Amino acid sequence: MQDIPPVVSEEPAAKKSFWRSSKGGCLVVTLVPVIGLLLLVLLVMIPMWVNNGKLADMIGRFEDYPLPPETGWSDYGGEGSIVLRGNGNHCDYRARFTFETGLAIDELTAYYNRANIAGIEGSRAAITLWIQPSSEGAAYRSQTVIVELNSSTDAGMDIRCH
């Protein structure tokens, strides 16, 4: 009987996975800080986006409410802001609208005192009215009025409110 020498097979060297190679390591080192920064930005921005949506909803509720008689939009759409006014740990929401009206300020005030326009968290929004002074020689009875809605909530995670 003849001995058959064992055949030594030359198997190809196992291929390293991409993540264990130097290229994969560089990618991980680059992506981890980028993902961390993205998460940090989202942690800051998401509460701001939520509060911006709440303000937009309040503005929409006011715009959907019927205008008083003899009144029209001077500039359509409200200007809104969210900040901390005064001291404390809360968010103040403010929206301003400009009208042209033939009504007296007392009539407008009575109209909006009867309005039940919801603020940010369901409670009634505080409504303030101002008359913008008109020129003395105005040929028409119309006057410009600024209407301001105010509401407030807890600060939450919004950095504008701390």
* Strand segment count: 4
Instruction: Return the structural class.
Output: alpha+beta
The backbone outline, from C-alpha atoms, is rod-shaped
Radius of gyration: 32 Å
How much helical structure, as a percent, in the residues? 25-40%
Catalogue the unreliable spans.
Answer: none
The main sheet comes to: 4 strands, antiparallel
- How many helices? 2
| Overall tally of domains | 1
Task: Describe what you observe in this structure.
The chain has 162 residues and is an alpha+beta fold. It has one domain (20-161). It is 33% helix and 27% strand. A four-stranded antiparallel β-sheet has the order 1-2-4-3, with helices on one face. The termini are far apart.
Q: How do the strands and helices of this protein lay out in sequence?
A:
Blueprint: H1 22-64, E1 71-83, E2 90-101, H2 105-114, E3 126-132, E4 143-154
Antiparallel strand pairs: 1-2, 2-4, 3-4
Outline of the structure:
The chain has 162 residues and is an alpha+beta fold. It has helices at residues 22-64, 105-114, and strands spanning 71-83, 90-101, 126-132, 143-154. It has two helices and four strands.
Which properties best describe this structure?
about 160 residues, alpha+beta, four-stranded antiparallel β-sheet, 2 helices, 4 strands, about 35% helix, rod-shaped
